[in-house]
Amino acid sequence: MKKKLTLSINDDLIEFAHNFSKETHQSISHIVEEYLIELKKNKEQNFEEQKLQKRIEKLYGAFESKPIPDKKDLRRAFHEKNYNWYKYSPWFFKQT
C-alpha cells in the first residue's frame, strides 16, 4: 500500500531532483523509493555481516595456546572417539 510522504529538503536538492527526474524519466517518488530500498538492503546486509563478524571475533585466539592440529591427528582423534563409543555402546553388545 502506497502512502504520501512530505519531505523538507534544500532548494538545490529539489532542483537536482527535478533535473534528474527529467533525465531518467522517473518520478521523484520512484527515485526516493528505490534509494530507500537500497538503504534497507544495505542495512540488513550489514547487520548480517556484523553478526558474522561477532562470531569470528569470538573464535579469534581459540588456538592461541595450542597449535592447530594436523589433519591426520584430527582424523585419528575422531575415529578413536567414534570407535570407543561404538565398542562400548549398549547397541554394540545387543548386535553381537
Keyword list:
73% helix, 0% strand, mainly alpha, 2 domains, single chain, 96 residues
Task: Tell me what you see in this structure.
The mean pLDDT is 81. It is built from 4 helices and no strands. The radius of gyration is 30 Å and the shape is rod-shaped. The protein is 73% helix and 0% strand. It has 2 domains: 52 residues; 29 residues. It is an all-alpha fold.
The coarse overall form would be rod-shaped
Proportion in β-strands: under 5%
Radius of gyration using CA atoms only? 30 Å
Helix/strand order, N-terminal first? HHHH
Mean pLDDT metric: 81
Oligomer: single chain
Structural class: mainly alpha
Number of individual domains: 2
- State the end-to-end CA separation: 68 Å
Number of strands: 0
Low-confidence stretches: none
Number of helical elements: 4
Main sheet characteristics:
none
Helix content: over 70%
Write the layout of secondary structure elements.
Layout: H1 11-24, H2 28-59, H3 71-88, H4 90-95
Brief write-up:
The chain is an all-alpha fold. Helices cover 73% and strands 0% of the residues. The mean pLDDT is 81.
